From TrEMBL, chain B:
Full protein name: Monovalent cation/H+ antiporter subunit D family protein
Record-linked PANTHER family: NA(+)/H(+) ANTIPORTER SUBUNIT (PTHR43373), NA(+)_H(+) ANTIPORTER SUBUNIT A (PTHR43373:SF1)
Keywords: Membrane, Transmembrane, Transmembrane helix
Main location: membrane
Amino acid sequence: MLTQHFPALLVVVPLMAAPLIVFARRSLASWLIALLATAITFGIAASLLAQTMSEGTLVYAMGSWEAPLGIEYRIDAAGAFVAVIVAAMGLIVMPYSRVGIAAEVRSEEHYLYYALMMLCLAGLLGILVTGDAFNVFVFLEVSSLATYVLIAMGRDRRALVAAYQYLLMGTIGATLYVVGVGLLYLETGTLNLADMATRLVDVGDSRGVLAALAFITVGISLKIALFPLHLWLPNAYAYAPSPVSAFLAATATKVSIYVLMRYFFTIFGATEVFDARATGAILLGLSLAAMFIPAVVAIFQHDMKRLLAYSSVSQIGYITLGISLDSVEGLMASAMHLFNHALTKGGLFLVLGGVVLRCGGAGFDRLAGLGHTMPVAAFAMVVGGLSLIGVPGTAGFISKWYLVSAAMHDGQWWLVGAVLASSLLAVIYVWRFVEVAYFRAPPADHPAPGEAPLSMQLPALAMIAGCVYFGIDATWSSEVSMRVAEVLMYNPGVGQ
Amino acid sequence: MTEDIQLISLLLTPLVGMLLLALAGRWPNLREAITLITAVVLFSESIQLAVDVLGGARPGLTLIEMLPGLTLRLAVEPLGAVFSVISSGLWIISTLYSIGYMRGNKEKKQTRFFVCFAGAIFAAQGIALAGNMLTLFMFYEAMTLITYPLVTHHGTDHARNSARTYLGVLLGTSIAFLLSGLLATWVIAGTLDFRQGGILAGHLGATGTALLLVLYMFGIGKAALMPFHRWLPAAMVAPTPVSALLHAVAVVKAGVFTIVKVIVYIFGTDNLMSLGSADWVPVIAGFSILSASIVALRADNLKRRLAYSTVSQLSYVTLAATLLAPISIVGAVMHIAAHALGKITLFFAAGSIYTAAHKTEVSQLDGIGRRMPWTMVAFSIGALSMIGLPPAAGFVSKWYILSAAMSLEHWLAVGVLVLSTLLNAGYFLPIVWRAFFREPPSDADDHHDEPHAAHGEAPLLMVFAQTTTAAMTIGLFFYHEPVLRLARAVAGAF
């Protein structure tokens, strides 16, 4: 049966598509291959989610070599959920890219763009599906290396600096992670994640484990862009080609958050991480700082891409806040916001990509009067912005609903105030855009740019529509996030 | 089944209207015809609903399951029927008025104006029919957002800054306080449904209830309880029809409507009475009533004076609702209706004066009653209703509130009501006096007004609208039986 190979195919399909694209070379052909590959990948991810929801964890032995000898792929509802987000985003970005990169990437480099997108996709999905600690590192590097190049493709020369900055920070993060894995290997003698989890229970309290926890947490936090390790993110998002910004914003940090959740709840175990150590308190403090400081910084930006980037750092704080609560409700809120924020921010960056194409930049001076010159795009940005704020009827509201009720269940009433106060900051930065778009006259040199081409507009509007849809009917997303939280909390990888 | 269609169509009618209006933007006559037809259809549906509710029907309909265990739901009870009828009925009249006003003043972006107007009515219907607090909250926020383009209609810096206050206060209070109150209610009571007797009884002690009540009272910023009232005067930058229908009727009434709903169906009057957790609200409301009146007394700008009068009158409803006696709840519901009619008349008159004479300040109104008799007579009737004198509707509601305060021996409330009546007389009667009994300024005194020096009445549609609402203000004094019956049903007793 083909379906039993789905965990492997999830990675293999995009991975094989990359060299094919390089052989194909021609822009149109590489686009078609990439489109086909992402469509297949999304189908596989969706079917994996359905399977894991009904049957629980799926285990796949690479090349029939059983663990711990061989590398094991292991996917449950939590991994499949994030995989669906990643694959769906890939599928949405592909049709968008055809026109989307035309203005930003030189035509002889188009095939490289598609090949790198495939590698990035394969790397991100690999992280989600693998059951091996070192393999996580390998896939992390695959996706990161692809990302560095993708960012450097940006038209602006500053993209090179941004990519370099990310390269340095990302490499430090990955190195810290691999040091942590090495320490764990020393303590437990295994790299298989499920094995590691069982053996760590016997190891008990040790300095090695503590050091591993510290290394892995900091290393992954760099990739998450958890405040104050977020410095690479605003430039990377701002100078990358628009489809890349959208894809990264919706996926890269989310996958790293998944890794952190995995290590916290499945490998180390919640007792070790939260009860015996101060990890929870530290994460809580950083999350709160993330919710406020970058949100204030976002208010003072003059470029929409940078504004959205800082908003991302702030919204990541909501997700890690849910993790730090160490409860099913908190984890569920995190999983929920992971999905909703990917939807919202991905959609916003896609809309913005069309705007940048037409207006020649995302600076506020270029966006002035957007409400008159590109009414559809401006309105879509407003709807996405409302979802960032968390206005009822948008996906962001559902996240906030669960996050606040998780804090209430935990008896942390002051957190309720913090979450809601932070969304008031979102009102301010979103409204900066509204006032620029609707109260300023369009720039004189660019009076009537017209709406973005349909191939860009439709995917963008579909995601913005998704923000509204999942804000009104959140039964599916709540059901899945609940399962994700339960899997992470009560199902520590072993014994299945 | 027919009930379902009836409820859904109350929401769909303004929504379809919005869509058609947007499509018909190029043909002003068609566009205005659509607005009028939509308003008339909506009103007839709303009347039908009110008749059914008077007959004892309580239709309900679940729209969608939003979260597991939490639905978006419509359910009608008497108070909702009252609000639905008021907002849709006055929409017809204010549409007529708007057509006259927008054309008379050659306003720009009229299509957007009418679309957003219909949107605000859609939100008002949603609030009126909401079957649980979550549904109400959704429409409540929708109303804030859809009225934002109306407040900023002129697109000037002044409009933008005022709209910041508008949005900042309304969104800020609703997110910071109302949403947390809502979530706390959900966590504590496990439901957000509106039920007779409340859903919190027995779940929460006196202090907890009082704290939760703080979140609700200040979270419902649309009720303009001080110190969160600033948005209302700020909203006066909008064209006058917006001030008239939205900031005298739909938006502000949505606020006090929500307050009454929350007091009656979430907290429960008996529950609050026995816990004593609401004792502080009448004090704040009383303070709001008096201090807003004092500000109004000193305001020279006519719309600003009316806005502060609204702040004060809204707190009548809050005060009445939190006196917690059945008869005071009746007074609160009656006042929602009575104030709506009176205040819309006053705003209509202010808009007529602006359109015909381009005057905005009270001090410019000397002798204007001779040139605009219809307008100023309508204004005087509205003023009577604000003061609470017969034969205007304001007297009826004030009567109920006052007798509730008397029978409860709540002397603070009695004192506030009496003082406020004097203050109201103090800032409305001088305007009437100026208009009818002072000499108009000689032409030499106002060169800048010369083109308008020979003005007469406002356009016919506007005069018609204000005369109608003035007549209704008096009509409600003599015939308020249906409203009273609905109000009694809300109060649950006698």
